[in-house]
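Sequence design from tokenized structure. All designs in this work follow the same two-part layout: the structure record, then the generated sequence. An example of the structure record is given first.
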């Protein structure tokens, strides 16, 4: 049976079949029924199907059960589908209300499921979300790894008797849980609760999903810490230890008592009363 509409052109640059709608409808509409294809484009060495629009969608694919647009290429190094935008919009955009926005799968051991490259000097890949990314398996990094936040922390179980604020100095209780410090030169000191001021953890160890009664303790790096200067004014560079004030640090006045009870070094002075200052955590 002959096709209802058939176009054939032997002239370069002249379409075999052309559909134009100068209003708001479809220029060409193809319906493949239950098993066929609505529109098929085949070319020996040029474009099989090309869509062009001054302001709307150039090519639109919609499916109720399969792929909206399906591209296949049998040429080595050639993409089955390619999106190019020479203005300011994305080359390819994927949106899904119930599944992945963009999904890529490779069956080759020498290639990746999704490859992102930026030849203009910018980032190759930007991920945004909470969490922004999850890796199931090993991660290999061949360049430098830059972490913009301040400290390396680890999650610990906290005694349920206490409400813990960021910046609180913590010690290890007899039951193995953490609790706020409350005595001077306490060698049970474990660190400072991360997240006070404008510092956040750059990396967090032992994070567990949906686990209550835990808090991130800064072990290395910069963190804001509660201090009490009533015992002695604190100068930049002073060594800090636990104080009799609950959850607060103080300046080390006796080096022999401070050994084993050091929290870190003050990065700013604090002359009177209680407050938060940035410190460099260095437990000793």
């Amino acid at each position: 049976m002959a096709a209802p509409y058939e176009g054939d052109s032997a002239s370069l640059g002249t379409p075999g079949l052309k559909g134009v709608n100068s209003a708001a409808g479809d220029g060409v509409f193809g319906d493949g029924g239950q098993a066929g294809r609505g529109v098929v484009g085949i070319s020996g060495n040029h474009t099989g199907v090309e869509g062009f629009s001054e302001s709307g969608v150039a090519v639109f694919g919609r499916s109720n059960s399969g792929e909206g647009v399906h591209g296949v290429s049998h040429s080595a190094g050639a993409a089955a589908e390619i999106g190019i935008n020479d203005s300011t919009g994305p080359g390819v955009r994927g949106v899904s209300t119930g599944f992945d926005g963009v999904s890529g799968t490779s069956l080759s051991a020498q290639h990746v499921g999704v490859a992102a490259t930026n030849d203009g000097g910018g980032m190759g890949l930007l991920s945004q979300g909470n969490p922004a990314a999850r890796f199931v398996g090993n991660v290999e990094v061949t360049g430098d790894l830059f972490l913009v936040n301040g400290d390396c922390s680890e999650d610990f179980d906290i005694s349920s008797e206490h409400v813990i604020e960021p910046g609180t100095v913590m010690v290890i209780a007899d039951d193995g849980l953490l609790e706020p410090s409350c005595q001077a030169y306490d060698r049970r000191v474990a660190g400072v609760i991360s997240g006070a001021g404008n510092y956040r953890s750059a990396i967090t160890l032992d994070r567990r999903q949906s686990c209550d009664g835990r808090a991130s303790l800064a072990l290395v790096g910069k963190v804001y810490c509660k201090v009490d200067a009533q015992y002695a004014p604190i100068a930049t560079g002073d060594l800090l230890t636990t104080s009799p004030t609950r959850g607060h640090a103080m300046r080390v006045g006796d080096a022999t008592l401070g050994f084993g009870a050091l929290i870190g070094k003050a990065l700013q002075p604090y002359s009177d009363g209680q407050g938060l200052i940035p410190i460099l955590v260095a437990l000793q």
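The two ends are 88 Å apart (CA to CA). We note this feature because it recurs in several other targets discussed in the main text.
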